[in-house]
## 1
Amino acid sequence: MCLVVCFLSNGCGGNKLESLKQQEKELSHTLDSLNSLFTKADEELNNIPVISKATVEAGDGLFQVLVRMGIPELERRQIVLALQDSVEFSGMRVGQEFYVAQNPNADPGKQVKAFRYAANPATIHLIFRDDQTGDFSYQLVNKPLTRRHSIFQGNLEAGSTLNKMLFQVGIPGRMVGVVSGVLQCKVAFQQAQPGDRFRILLEETFYQDSIWISGKVLYAEFEGRTLGHHEAFRYDDGDPKSSYNAHYTENGEALVFDGLRYPLDRLHITSTFGNRIHPITGQRRAHQGVDYGSPRGAPVYAVAEGVVVTSGYDQYSGNKIAVRHRDNSTSWYLHLDSRGVSKGITVNARQMIGKVGNTGRSTGPHLHFGFTNAKGKWINPLSKTMIATPKLQGERLAKLQKQVGEVRNHLQLAEAETPQLANDSMDVKVKMRFLEP
Ligand SMILES: [Zn+2]
């Protein structure tokens, strides 16, 4: 700190300016928006800001970054207040850069002159302190983006995973999880077969034509030999914050983005749903679920968000947990070694709720996983792929159907331009891109 102060007060404007210009040069590609500040500094050499930079590390929140930049507590709070309504900091990613311009000669609590956060190379959040009032004002800089639509399609191959196939047809790494999530809303991939076909329409935005900024899955299609034909369309409600922005069927039935997650890390079915001879009683009876073989102690996860309606023990089920979901279906997890959640609490999809065990009437460590529908009837858990949510209706349904029409036009246009896309032969694997007209 002393070094900075000495340097700033040595009175030789030329050196200060040189150094400032050097600093500016080094940072110029990311600091264009701070130019006004530098110009001002030229005039008032006593108020030269010191620019420092911090990079987001794993586990960081805004607060940690501000602490690392050496910003005092009072000003940390001012910055958070100035940004919190405009910036979604839950989207912070490792490697993102923050810049702060501080004037160590200013009064305590007023030393931060400007603060800059680039959510991506084209979306920059800035705050500047007004020297008169001492308050921060917020400014959003959106640089122009190019928008591109791309179609990807392929066939599932034996021995490959869905994610691998999505990578293989060229879907960008950051979109693979999203695409696979949309497909899994509609399709129980445990039952997918080699040769089953998928087709994806993405809308992506790029900065300077090459830097990937964002992507949306406008359309996902699956054609399975046994699973049948499924389509999902992205509905845009017009407001980016609308909770209706999601994927739907053509008729407006919502598909929950998360779909159902797996209850275990490794799935090895040892007994399926339906009639069987019970391994302990020897009687023929319906098996109301699926058994997954698993080592004792392996984590058991909730397959979707919901409320724990049962967390207890009985001599048949052993330690058992039941989670009721939004559509009033309930997932059941039996024979647990230990239970990690109690009745009444809300759990997220994929939250760990217990550990695999061998409690109750059980011949070895395994998870018995069951599902009851809204009426309490046992259903085959493998046939349940999503938690249903209400349908779009009225104006929203009309808007969705207009958007469905646009997607179909895109697909037709692409097929007309690229004949092999229309060809349904099993080994077609094409990707194509076309620019927004
Ligand atoms: Zn069982």
## 2
Amino acid sequence: MQDKNIAVGITGGIAAYKACELVSRLKKMGANVKVAMTRNATEFVTPLTLQSLSGNPVVTGMFDRPAQWEIEHIALAKWAQVFVVVPTTANLIGKLAAGIADDFLSTTLLATRAPIYLAPAMNTQMYTHPVVQANMRKLREMGVRFIEPATGRLACGDVGPGKLAEIDAIVAALEEAFQRVRDYADCRILITAGPTREAIDPVRYLSNHSSGKMGYALAQAAVRRGGAVTLVSGPVALEPPAGLEELVRVESADDMYQAVIQRYPDQDIVIMAAAVADYKPKILSGQKIKKTAEPLVIEFVKNIDILAELGKSKTHQKLIGFAAETENLEEYARTKLIRKNLDLIVANDLTQEGAGFGVDTNIVKLIDRSGKTEDVPLMSKADLGDLVLDRIKQLS
Ligand SMILES: Cc1cc2nc3c(=O)[nH]c(=O)nc-3n(C[C@H](O)[C@H](O)[C@H](O)COP(=O)(O)O)c2cc1C
């Protein structure tokens, strides 16, 4: 943390007093800390306390004029290497998700390109409210990171999730954030995501349940960490991350193969998170197949195995595959890793709740070439995207 610039936002929740401990800890670790508080936060803890702890003036209003900063929100937005909001109210989460910038803190959060970490704290009913959860999902998809609240007895007397994460956990998340700041700069990464569609006739296709969320989370994390990211995406209903080098939209496995193989020689890392169809209809009917009294028989042939082809022609690239299985997960994944000449495989057990298609979380095993296996517990796909990138960095 020595000499790192950390902006700490504080919003109007009971846990605001805990931000004092955070600021004090960060200062003791050698960080430069600047604090921005919402007006409501000042009802809970005084700017003078935070000013004394941080050693810097504290901004509370859009039109305050501290001597040191010029156009304050832009200056702070640029100065920050990491931005953390402790505690984060439901209100701030909602405003950021909607792009509302009606005070100093929300305006600065829109203006910064530093990684944003939010540590929510609120009553359990508020935290589990569908609109708060939807706002958090939206922000996660945009690359905002959450330091998840703990479950426990809250100030209001309720017991449940919504308690501010421990200060130790917040400090650990910030230390991790600094390890990840631009650690993929100068690295060319191609990521595939989503399902493919194998046309049967002009109106029908064979596909699968992949939502693309894992691949998009990886792309989001890789962009945030400074990578030059090409995202090759099958048809999904997700917003692509801002800052991609290139977005290539494809439909079929053949399209995806072409898009990937052309770009392969220029890449340092290729992560195949797409759920590519193994089969396609042998014959693509030019006209819509009409309903008849007879059963419809369609013959399927194998698609090109993109990952295996990449494995065969690998030169300098690190190649990462995904395995989604409903049985014998580790054995199948290990076999796939060897057979397809991969460096790392991320294995999803589709039978576990919270893992696999469609959901925002995943439970995986990571297996590398040396045979090392890591069991990764349930975590958000956003967090898993970062963890997978951490492990790719550690590959020899
Ligand atoms: C005593 C008290 C405690 C509060 N605690 C919380 C809280 O922990 N989390 C939260 O989201 N809102 C909490 N609120 C409500 C927020 O203060 C309110 O939504 C406010 O508009 C937030 O403003 P801000 O996000 O600009 O700081 C609390 C309100 C009061 C009066």
